[in-house]
Write a structure and sequence with these properties.
387 residues, alpha/beta, 5-stranded mixed sheet, 12 helices, elongated
């Protein structure tokens, strides 16, 4: 999409010579009309934005009354719908990238700017902001429709606060990979000739990873939806339970190896073949094993025990990792809920909710025993259906 109307730009730049240079660049463009208003300070920019409407902001990250990333929050708070392109020096590129992460649409390195690069960045910033606003509108519309439909299905005295939180958290979690895709695709589109082959591959890998994360998130939400609507049914088949559990351990061994963890699997009692739902078992123990590895400390141990009894089978997965605060354990099996001490460890907060739904569909129960800084043990008890 090419912007065809007159584009009004607010330039926040204390260097008068550079402001004139940008004005000259814009005057060289024959296919587009630009109007540039120049201010030298952040305070002046905030005042100007209360009086006039702008299509895009060009923001220098070094101003007399504001330095670096501190300039972004006031602008975003005052005019959240106006895209921002930051201007930076060569040695401040990392700061510029962080500015994009915090809400700017693009960045330009001053010494590399010419007429084509400037116009392309402005157009990209406007288009990307419009797309994000469209996505936000779609999310808001979706939330309204979900709430309307929910109101028809629940009793008048059952205001479903969890549903609202679920939609809000889902919108937040899916927006992160969407922004990654938009940003990476924009770089590939607008800076194709300047990117090295390695950087192009890195951006493509970012896109693939973000798409995979979105797909996984959608699958997990779909599973929760089926369980909540009563459509999740156990479909049992003949299965060698011990062999199946050993296979699950092998599937996560590479992940454990990255943290130099030792995986231990042990089985007790007579198990043999019995009737199990293979899909539900995979949902339960893949999530529990992955969590045990994710929250373990390097060079630690993750232990998976399988105990066969007369009428039940007990599965115990134990780690000696960061543990779960006691106050967080009560809400741990709710969708999008994570413990407060996970820090930057990635996760959607759906894994344990899925595991619990799958356990209940199999007619069993799951309990957690954890101590902060010591480790966590999940114990799953499932009924044994003999052939």
């Amino acid at each position: 999409m090419v912007v065809s109307y007159s584009v009004k730009i607010l330039l926040v730049e204390d260097n008068l010579s550079y402001a004139r240079l940008l004005q000259e660049f814009l005057m060289q463009v024959q296919s587009q009309e630009f109007t540039l208003v120049h201010v030298k300070r952040l305070g002046e920019a905030l005042q100007e934005l209360t009086q006039c409407n702008y299509d895009v902001i060009l923001l220098d990250l070094s101003l007399p009354d504001s330095q670096g990333l501190l300039s972004l929050p006031p602008l975003i708070d005052q005019v959240p719908n106006i895209p921002i392109v930051v201007l930076t020096n060569t040695n401040d590129e990392e700061v510029a990238i962080e500015a994009v992460r915090q809400g700017a649409q693009d960045y330009l390195i001053k010494r590399q700017v010419n007429s084509d690069v400037l116009v392309r960045s402005l157009r990209y910033a406007i288009e990307r902001k419009q797309l994000l606003e469209s996505l936000r509108t779609v999310n808001e519309t979706l939330q309204i429709r979900v709430e309307e439909r929910t109101a028809e299905l629940v009793k008048a005295n059952e205001i479903n606060q969890l549903k609202s939180e679920f939609v809000s958290m889902f919108s937040h979690d899916i927006r992160n990979p969407l922004n990654t895709i938009l940003l990476a695709a924009g770089f590939l589109q607008n800076y194709d000739e300047k990117l090295t082959k390695e950087k192009k591959l890195n951006h493509l890998q970012m896109i693939r990873s973000a798409i995979k994360n979105m797909g996984q998130l959608l699958d997990e939400v779909s599973f929760i939806g089926k369980a909540d609507s009563g459509k999740l049914r156990s479909q049992v088949i003949r299965l060698d339970l011990e062999a199946f559990c050993r296979q699950l351990v092998e599937e996560v061994r590479l992940m454990a190896g990255e943290k130099h963890l030792t995986l231990v699997f042990a089985s007790f009692g007579q198990l043999g073949e019995a009737l199990w739902d293979k899909s539900l078992l995979r949902h339960i123990f893949s999530n529990l094993l992955t969590n045990a590895i994710k929250y373990s400390l390097p060079d630690g141990i993750v232990r998976f025990e399988l105990i066969g009894e007369k009428k039940t089978v007990i599965f115990r997965i134990q780690d000696w990792g960061i543990g779960i605060p006691k106050e967080d354990q009560k809400r741990l099996f709710q969708p999008f809920q994570r413990a407060d001490n996970v820090g930057t460890i990635p996760g959607t907060g759906l894994g344990l909710a899925i595991a619990k739904k799958a356990v209940e569909a199999h007619g069993g129960e799951i309990i957690v025993n954890s101590q902060l800084g010591v480790g966590t043990t999940f114990t799953v008890t499932l009924p044994l259906l003999r052939i």
